[in-house]
């Protein structure tokens, strides 16, 4: 079932309608957001699919750009004056079924003048709107998503936001305080200068280390020690793992010449 129907005119703001649908799908789930170009399967009766989707939705978003009101129809004249114009029919069906309609004014599109619409969609002139300005798209989309969640309460954040997916930001508690935490993938990249920073893109970067680096638990073993390792050569770097069984080193050892031996 599609909870939100995205209505638009292809000759006006189709790209904006696609952006709205994709952003809302990312937040609430693709199956909850209907857009004709995405949601109608090949070979399906598009008229039945459109009417069924309108009748079953809880909210219709009417995407309105600067060309929406006066866009010409296929037979000449204004498209909105044709009773078979699908942009008009979808909105009219929503009003007839008591479905909430929210105009989304794109760019420089202004409010619809009183008396400018056919009678079956005239209530659209009085509907409170939201705006999408591409110079402020992130904030406008977020406000629109909040409006959708408010008007369709059961829809609220059914799918994780993009920032909470793998490699993104989340929340965790450290020493009793909530902190932002980042989950990062593995990055294989040479960086000169030692330890780098933690970020959403990278994680902790260790590069060009010229001494022992400890990443496990237990004591760090450096140099000569009874029953411990002694490594000689052209500037050996090694990574110590967990130290167990009386100080035996469980780690791989690399030298700068590319040789490799296993510490036991």
TrEMBL record:
Query: Where in this chain does the record put each TIR domain?
Result: 4-133
- Chain intervals for the UniProt region annotation (Disordered): 213-264
Q: Name one GO biological process term.
A: signal transduction
* Bias (Basic and acidic residues): 242-264
One Pfam assignment: TIR_2
Source domain of life is Bacteria
Q: InterPro entries recorded for this chain? A: TIR_dom, Toll_tir_struct_dom_sf
Secretion signal, residue range per the UniProt entry: none
Polar residues: which segments have biased composition?
Answer: 217-230
What is the recorded name of this protein? TIR domain-containing protein
Provenance organism: Nocardiopsis composta
């Amino acid at each position: 079932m599609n909870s939100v129907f995205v209505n638009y005119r292809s000759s006006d703001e189709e790209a904006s309608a696609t952006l709205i649908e994709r952003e809302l799908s990312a937040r609430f789930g693709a199956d909850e957001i209907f857009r004709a170009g995405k949601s109608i399967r090949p070979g399906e009766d598009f008229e039945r699919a459109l009417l069924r989707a309108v009748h079953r939705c809880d909210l219709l978003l009417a995407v309105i750009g600067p060309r929406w009101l006066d866009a010409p129809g296929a037979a000449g004249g204004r498209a909105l004056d044709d009773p078979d114009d699908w942009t008009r029919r979808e909105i009219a069906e929503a009003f007839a079924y008591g479905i909430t309609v929210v105009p989304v004014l794109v760019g420089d599109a202004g409010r619809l003048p009183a008396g400018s619409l056919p009678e079956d969609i005239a209530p659209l002139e009085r509907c409170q709107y939201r705006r999408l300005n591409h110079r402020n798209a992130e904030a406008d989309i977020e406000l629109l998503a909040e409006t959708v969640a408010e008007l369709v309460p059961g829809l609220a954040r059914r799918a994780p936001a993009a920032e909470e997916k793998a490699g993104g930001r989340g929340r965790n508690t450290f020493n009793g305080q909530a902190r932002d935490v980042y989950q990062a993938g593995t990055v294989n990249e040479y960086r000169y200068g030692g330890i780098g920073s933690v970020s959403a893109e990278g994680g902790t970067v260790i590069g060009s280390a010229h001494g022992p680096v400890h990443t496990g638990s237990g004591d760090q073993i450096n140099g000569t020690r009874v029953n411990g390792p002694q490594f000689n050569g052209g500037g050996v770097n090694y990574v110590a793992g967990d130290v167990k069984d009386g100080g035996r080193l469980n780690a791989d050892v690399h030298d700068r010449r590319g040789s490799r031996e296993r510490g036991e």
